[in-house]
Amino acid sequence: MTDSTKPKTEPTLVIPQVIVGLGNPEPKYDQTRHNIGFAAVDALARVWGVSLVENRKFQGLFGEGMGPKGERVRLIKPLTYMNRSGQSIRAVTDWYKLPVESVLVIYDDMDLPVGRMRMRLSGSAGGHNGMKSTIAHLGSDNFPRLRIGIGKPVKTQGDPTISHVLGKFSPEENALMPDVLQLVIEAIELSLKQGVEKAMSLYNNRTISQKT
Mind listing the pLDDT tens digit for each residue in 43-60? Predict the structure, then answer.
């Protein structure tokens, strides 16, 4: 059989089996920019009718349910605090014997403006402590992730990064969040149906703009 007559192999679809939202527990962190990953998982849980309850084995709020095609999906919000998120994620993957590439992690990104999201199949932590922990505990960066833009901090004296990520969205930014989270839900549902790459091609260039 020549090269021209060999059957072409279809690329392997990357379908998430566990979806992780990164954030910090405690009420004082609710609705902060750094907790947008938690907000995304909460939104998915509402849409899919999944109850998130504390699971001590997984060190997080965890739930299982059915995705848009009737496939089993797992949602988790680690309660380890951001810098140790990987402990929780590794506990889930070990328990269910899941491959690394089946983990989809949702988190905040200062390099993206508010109103944008970006999916990738792999990559570095980009300075994000939750992702550093995740990569360290999974022993690989070869897993999909969805970054939600929180914009850059206003330049002031000293390092404004911490106050920015742990601060809350402005009223104008907050008004965009329902539409941003709806975009996230749609992208993830497509990734469950047709793979992460398809979702990347359709959603990575979408922008939610401020309403006038």
Answer: 999 999 999 999 999 999
Joined together, the tokens standing for residue 113 give 């403006």
Q: Supply φ then ψ for residue 65, to 5 degrees.
A: -165, -165
What single DSSP character describes residue 72? Answer: E
Catalytic residue (one of 34, 128, 137, 164): 34
User: b or e along 56-68 (b: 16 or more beta carbons within 10 Å of the residue's beta carbon)?
Assistant: eebbbbbbebebe
Global pTM exceeds 0.85 = yes
**Tens digit of each residue's pLDDT (9 = 90 or more) over 69-79:** 788 899 999 99
How far is CA 137 from each of CA 23, 27, 94, 174, rounded to the nearest angstrom? Answer: 17, 27, 11, 33
Token reading at 118: 């970006």
Q: Give catalytic status of residue 34 as yes or no.
A: yes
**Domains of the chain by start residue, with CATH:** 18-203 (3.40.50.1470)
Candidates 116, 113, 110; CA nearest to 160 is 110
CA dist., res. 194 & res. 188, Å (int) = 10
| Segment holding 146, helix H or strand E | strand 145-149
Averaged pLDDT of the chain: 92
Please report, as a single letter, which amino acid is at residue 63.
G
Spell out the long-range contacts of 36-40 with Cβ–Cβ below 8 A and sequence spacing 24 or more: 36/106, 36/107, 36/108, 36/148, 36/150, 36/177, 37/77, 37/105, 37/106, 37/107, 37/108, 37/130, 37/148, 38/77, 39/177, 39/181, 40/106, 40/146, 40/148, 40/181, 40/184, 40/185
